[in-house]
Specification:
Elements: H1 17-23, H2 26-41, E1 56-57, H3 69-73, E2 78-86, E3 92-99, H4 103-115, E4 118-119, E5 121-123, E6 126-128, E7 130-139
Length: 142
């Protein structure tokens, strides 16, 4: 049985000149449209120059603390309070446990508070340090 002869690979035909010239402006046009839309969004952003808020944990960037395995197995629960100083960049310093009954919960909460990413406090729209920030972590079994 013989196979039919194969045609040699051919290159695609070039675009006609009028189609090729139209495609040259499409990329820069799309870039300009996107740039104008992005710049126009600045007019819709709220004015935060008068905004004041306390520091808070950025839950989008910080995962929940791990429940200590031994205490989970024993079905133990606790509420732990940690106090920290949060700087204007959103980093915790001088963290210490102020309330908690089990060393494993206290250690887990302290590690969480030290490694968490925070939204810094705002005063008149500017980030400011937040001394004595209080973080309460409830270890409960659901």
């Amino acid at each position: 049985m013989e196979l039919p002869p194969q045609k040699p690979d051919t290159e695609p035909a070039p675009l006609p000149k009028e189609e090729a010239s139209n495609s040259g402006w499409l990329g820069p046009l799309m870039f300009c449209i996107c740039l104008m839309q992005c710049l126009s969004l600045a007019w819709y952003l709220p004015d935060r120059s008068h905004q004041t808020r306390p520091a808070s944990v950025n839950h989008f960037l910080t995962s929940n603390p791990q429940y200590p395995a031994r205490l989970l197995k024993q079905q133990l629960a606790d509420n732990v309070s940690v106090h920290c100083d949060i700087d204007a960049e959103g980093h915790a310093h001088s963290c210490h446990v102020t309330q908690g009954h089990y060393i494993e919960f206290n250690q887990t909460a302290l590690l969480y508070a030290e490694r968490a990413i925070y939204h810094p406090a705002l005063q008149n729209g500017k980030a400011v340090p937040s001394p004595d920030f209080k973080l309460h972590i409830n270890f409960i079994i659901e």
